[in-house]
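note to self — DONT lose this again. spent like an hour looking for the file last time. sequence + predicted structure for the chain T wanted, 333 res
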Amino acid sequence: MAHFRRRKLIVAGALLLFVGAFAAYVFWPRPDELARWKAQMRARGEKFSLAEVAPKFSQEKLDWAKQLQPVVNGILTHPVPPGAVDMMISATPGYAVPAWQRPFANETAKTNHTWEALEEQLARSADAIHQLHELLRNIPAGSPADYSDAVKLGSSINLVALRKAAQSLSLATLNDLHRGSLPSALTNLHTLIALTRALEEGGLLVDQMIRVAIAGLGVAATWEVLQAPGCDDAQLAGLDAAWSQDQLVKRMALTFEIERAWASELYQYARTNQGGLSPIFGGPSGGAGQVFKDKVYTPLWQKAWSKQDELLYHRAMQPIGEGIRDAVTNRSW
């Protein structure tokens, strides 16, 4: 009996020692490595707050963005859906056949996907496409997103509408080339190129990803136009001038800074907010899981690990940002 009691005392003592050691690990004052690292980086010119790097909010740009979706909704997508035609299809190594020169029936197994059907569909969408041309003729400066609240931050332009607009303009360009109307094709192509600038001042990575995707469609459509006879020097110079306004890589350098500042402010919010990460990422709703998260994990993470997590994030991201800046400076891909 005495032996059993001694074992219980030893186990209890070991548990108390473990709890005490763990508490000392969590609550013992330690150097703030995160603050020290940020101070070193700030001395090199790095910025870690949205107020320092975020684009200026523009109510005019937000109002403009709200006009986009209803305009795009007016562009028909039946019977020929956006993205129905693949451009720059390889014929032999190093050579491709323009899409507008190929029979449409080869594109899909759908018998109602024909150039005639596409031309009729676009004719019925003419008013909406004209409105899209007018909307993109004058894109207001500034950002439609308000960066003052890091938790609620998100893209303020309908990205699905942007994708549909880009695909529709691409189809319209091909249709014009197929029917031999180079001026109309150039008008649609210039609007497609302008569409890449709708998100130019969007600071989030998703904004720039959509920009790159639209630019990809624009590059393919530009190649299609260049295969058509009749482009004169003035028209070629106009295309060159339109594309020269798109600074995709240079903008990505600023996007990196904005995304990093956004993450830094989210870390700070989660570190000081009672709900921790839950308002940002969600979590268990009710039951023992939520009790453990709210009463045990979140306070421990906030006190002991949140700054370590943030420091790991920044150290992992720093070489990426420097690589993007090097690419801009050295004009290297």
